[in-house]
Amino acid sequence: MSSELGDFLKARRRELSPPTAGLPADGRRRVPGLRREEVAVLASISPGHYTRLEQGRRRASEPVLDALARALRLSADERAYLFELSGKDAGRPLGRPGRQVRPQLRRLLDDLTHTPALVLGRCTDILAWNPPAAALFTDFALLSRDERNFVRLVFRDPAVRALYTDWPYMARACVAQLRMEAARDPHDPRLSALVAELSAQDPDFRTWWKDHRVAVRGAGTKDLRHPVIGELTLDWSALTDTADPDQQLIALTAAPGTPSHDGLRALRDLGAVTSGRTGPGVPGGGGEIAGASAQ
């Protein structure tokens, strides 16, 4: 992971111009961005110290990480990622339970009969879904357990890819969220396999993965084009299960009185029609990944 830290620092300093960083402009630069020496000055550390950090030959203290975050104008998500890479956050323990949705979260999902909702686990694995979510995205029950992965579907499933009116923006956000997962658990073999697979199969993923952009799932808006319902603008929120922070419930809603809200009603009816085939007989007609095999 030391190489990941160095790559991240290099990527961020190369995007920061001297005037933006509060330094005099210099027209003689052969490459864009800041030099190592300039980052060191801004962070009040020696050039040798910073060079060793980039090369993975030295660990950074929390004060140095704070100074680097300020010097490189990192966002809150990027700063959190920097600390994760440096081992300053204990992170989530290894050897966690497998891809089994928590029963309490399953019941909450079943109660959301009007709202498309998914439960995502580590590596964006789709642990459970309700009928409106299956009607919106795809028939998850027809996919194998390994295929039920949100980032993989965004990049590899033509129907899911076509659902997003601004696919590049959505896909880059997925890559940034996966980057944060990699910092929290860099030795997860499932995550490594997923990154290797998508890097080999999709040039956009390969390019964006190298950008070292990071983000966390929180909330936002999705513009969708459903093949049956039509145009939808949906707000989404990620609710983390505090008993198992690896599991998040993602719910998509629309403001009452809007065409998208009416579209969700139609989507609910569509989900009710297909609920008999979108899940393995669990309450509410949704589905989940059973078993306790490790991710």
TrEMBL record:
- Membrane spanning residue stretches: none
InterPro entries given in the database record: Cro/C1-type_HTH, Lambda_DNA-bd_dom_sf, MLTR_LBD
**What range(s) does the HTH cro/C1-type domain occupy?**
33-79
Record's SMART domains?
A: HTH_XRE (SM00530)
One family from Pfam that matches here is: HTH_31
Q: Where is the composition biased (Gly residues)?
A: 278-289
| Gene3D superfamilies, A to Z | 3.30.450.180, lambda repressor-like DNA-binding domains
Q: Which domain of life is it from?
A: Bacteria
Segments of this protein annotated with the region Disordered: 275-295
Q: Which PANTHER family match?
A: BLL4672 PROTEIN, BLL4672 PROTEIN-RELATED
Q: What is this protein called?
A: Helix-turn-helix domain-containing protein
**Which organism is this entry from?**
Streptomyces violaceolatus
